[in-house]
Design goal:
globular, single chain
Length: 372
């Protein structure tokens, strides 16, 4: 095994967390429990920000689609209603790679609770603007991350709206860093991610549907959960997984949950051991938010992990379904050692190393080593 840089182990870190399942998260919003994390690392662009090109999807669905492709690529797509216009806005945000913002400032909590399409669109949005404070708990109960809900009063004027749009653009773009790998190998990797992601989603569709049904039968709650993660350039995106924990589980790190925890559902233990719970992330191969091989994406509030990766420019890589650290262990690797593996991968990035990781991944999946 290649040498890993010596770093001080961090006993407070486990695997990336899950706010819904309590897998690796912090019980409090904002910072991890590590007292040595002094400030949030930079996740914004260092250059001066030009005006935000926002596409407001307030018209009919066809008009929204026509506006999206007839002009320049929008920086932000803003939807203010569900149904066909909201679906069109979501489609534009996916295809044009622009963050989706849901404007609910004209909605009340009672009205939103009667509109089932609103929570679905809110779960896919990077930010949700609300004016009614009572709307926040309604959205959270529907599965929307509370950290994505931002109070923006309707009467605060254009300056407040412009600042909120700029925030969404900064979160989606991340910091200025040269993307790796570049050149022909970078194009080949992206093409491979797209083709493999599409092929596996089609081939595994029956299995994905079966697992979703079994999860709903095994315990109350949704089959999928969404989680804020950090991607290339320390930008923010929403990751998908199968739910393996009981609903209402508090946010706990993996080492606090521990092996054999009663919070893990009966089916969830098997899904974790085989990593079937990660299969919905194949969708991120299609969208380009993840790659087959790369560092596993950090939780949005793992500030120390984000800072260490920024310092070594590890965030120049797309996060991966599997990685060099994962084939050397799973939940039981200390944070500093995990980052050391990430640094080694970034410094020795090559097709041969990627193939080695892909070949060793099935062996790790068949082992119970380090699975909490």
């Amino acid at each position: 095994m290649p040498a890993v840089p010596e770093r001080e182990p961090n006993p407070t870190r486990g695997r990336e967390s899950n706010p819904t399942s309590g897998r690796e998260s912090n019980p409090t919003r904002g910072r991890e429990s590590n007292p040595t994390s002094e400030r949030e690392p930079s996740r914004m662009s260092d250059s001066a920000s030009p005006p935000v090109r926002a596409l407001f999807a307030r018209q009919r669905a066809f008009a929204t689609l026509a506006a999206a492709w007839s002009g320049p690529r929008p920086d932000v797509v803003v939807a203010s209603r569900g149904g066909a216009p909201g679906t069109a806005a979501w489609l534009v945000s996916v295809v044009r790679r622009a963050p989706l913002v849901l404007d609910l400032r004209e909605r009340t909590s009672d009205r939103a609770a009667r509109e089932p399409h609103v929570p679905r669109l809110a779960r896919a949005a990077l930010r949700v603007w609300v004016a009614d404070p009572a709307l926040t708990p309604v959205l959270v109960h529907a599965g929307v991350d509370a950290g994505r809900v931002r109070p923006v009063a309707a009467g605060e004027g254009a300056d407040c709206e412009s600042a909120a749009l700029a925030e969404a653009r900064r979160l989606a773009r991340g910091r200025d860093v040269a993307h790796r790998p570049a050149g022909l190998y970078g194009l080949a990797r992206r093409l491979a991610d797209l083709l493999v992601g599409l092929a596996l989603l089609v081939l595994l569709l029956p299995l994905l549907a079966l697992v979703a049904v079994l999860i709903r039968l095994d315990s109350p709650g949704p089959a999928l959960f969404r989680q804020r993660r950090i991607g290339r350039g320390s930008s923010e995106f929403t990751i998908l997984k199968f739910r393996t924990m009981k609903t209402g589980t508090p946010d706990l790190a993996s080492h606090l949950v521990g092996p054999g925890s009663s919070r893990v559902t009966r089916l969830g233990r098997m899904l974790r051991r085989t990593s079937i719970d990660e299969l919905p992330q194949l969708w991120h191969l299609v969208t380009g938010e993840m790659s087959l091989v790369g560092p596993r994406p950090a939780l949005h509030n793992q500030f120390d992990l984000i800072a260490m990766r920024q310092q070594a420019d590890v965030d120049a890589l797309r996060p991966g379904l599997t990685g060099w650290a994962q084939v050397h262990g799973r939940d039981d690797i200390p944070l500093a050692q995990k980052v050391g593996y990430d640094v080694y991968y970034a410094e020795h990035l090559s097709p041969w190393l990627d193939l080695t990781i892909l070949a060793r991944t099935p062996v790790i999946l068949l082992s119970d080593r380090g699975v909490y």
